[in-house]
Amino acid sequence: MLDHVDFEARSWIPMSGWPVDRNSLLPHYETAAGLLGIEDLQAEWPASAVLPMNGPLFSERCFLSPIPDLGATLRARLQAAKNVQVVLHATALRLDTDTSGRWVRSIEVASTPDRRFRIEARSFVLACGGIENARLLLASNQQMPNGIGNQHDLVGRYFMEHPRVKWGSLQICRPDAAIAFHVPSAEARRPYLSQAKHCDVTAAFGLALRPEIRESERLLGSRTWIKPGPCANDWDGSEALHYLAFWLRKGRLHRDLIKSGRTILRHPAGSIASAIDRIGRSRRWAGHFHFDTILEQEPDPESRVTLDTRLDEFGLPRVKLEWRVGPLVRRTLQRVQTIVTDEMRMLGHRSDVLACAHGTPAYGDDIPYRWVRHHMGTTRMSNDPRTGVVDATCQVHGLANLFVAGSSVFPTGGNDMPTLTIVALAIKLGGHLQQWLE
Ligand SMILES: Cc1cc2nc3c(=O)[nH]c(=O)nc-3n(C[C@H](O)[C@H](O)[C@H](O)COP(=O)(O)OP(=O)(O)OC[C@H]3O[C@@H](n4cnc5c(N)ncnc54)[C@H](O)[C@@H]3O)c2cc1C
Questions:
Q1: How many domains does the chain divide into?
Q2: Is residue 265 part of a domain?
Q3: What positions does the domain Glucose-methanol-choline oxidoreductase C-terminal occupy (predicted)?
């Protein structure tokens, strides 16, 4: 779940503040958790996993769904439902409104460039992901030249990701239960599992800054993962090996597979060292770790999705993405680096900020942020149409029967993992639509 503070307006983050708070979302979070096979959202975690109470960091839990494939989980229910028809291989192309521009009449759909049809309905929900939701609204510009829901030029703006930086090393000098809980592997946690209900591998723990620190130092949210891994020189090869193994296991010829293969050829020493380390680690408690920090980013209107002049196979404009990461992210990262390494040294371990994987110092101006495929903000939520595309019910301002689901509605992104909130908001929207349609 997002933290309470993630929903609040924070004076140091322009355009922050959701029109809903966490308490009002809690019932929907619980339903969402049930759907995703998460047993107890509010369970306490064991004292051994908690970092010193008087320190600046706390252990923030994240649930890993044991049944993340909702297609498989819900298929039978969708097939059995009398009021649901699922149409596959159908690409939504454009929405058509009536002449007033306040009511969506139909959606144009294509299964191939030559096979097009229309779907009419009383209401429509866009749930095409954080980039495509904006693209569809912008491309639906027959009646409204700026696109649908874009009367204040907000659609596509405020695009946010979770910038990610791998930056530091940690060497454990003695067995440490608190660190072990933060390592996402069963081997590391096994010695401590018996003490901990609900702390098996379906939960992961990251290091987060306490809300008081975020507020007093005017920082963004962040979560730092402690990951077992090779020494810094081997990072590139190690990561490539990880992706290669992932896509080989999936049996899919993904472009990452080819990219990873090339990286392994460029960094053979690191890849071999990492492979040996991986095999060895399954039999022993690894002592080497690195830090991977995932950050919230401040909303920026110039970070945006627009339409390109190039067309796709359906003759529609492709998307152009300009992802900008602001200075507050850099300042937050620098504070996180200092706080985390200090805290690790206080716990009696060796810890340092290291040069980043691409040879650029993590403290430099040109931080090589990577993204984590969380696309947010392009149809942001606000009850004021001048600052948001959708209102608190996820209805597009000015269009009575058009709604948006997905993280494109997030006004700010929290520190990580959007999907539980996406599902909770979708469930909330479902309840609203049920009432609306009755
Ligand atoms: C590799 C990877 C790992 C991730 N790991 C995590 C994680 O551990 N935890 C987490 O919380 N999140 C994770 N995410 C993010 C998570 O997948 C997204 O937050 C989530 O899937 C977004 O849900 P959504 O339904 O809004 O969009 P999507 O899941 O993107 O679904 C949108 C759907 O709409 C379809 N679509 C798009 N355009 C059209 C169109 N024009 N017509 C018809 N259909 C269309 C797409 O094909 C897709 O099926 C990960 C993402 C990736 C890629």
A1: 1
A2: no
A3: 299-426
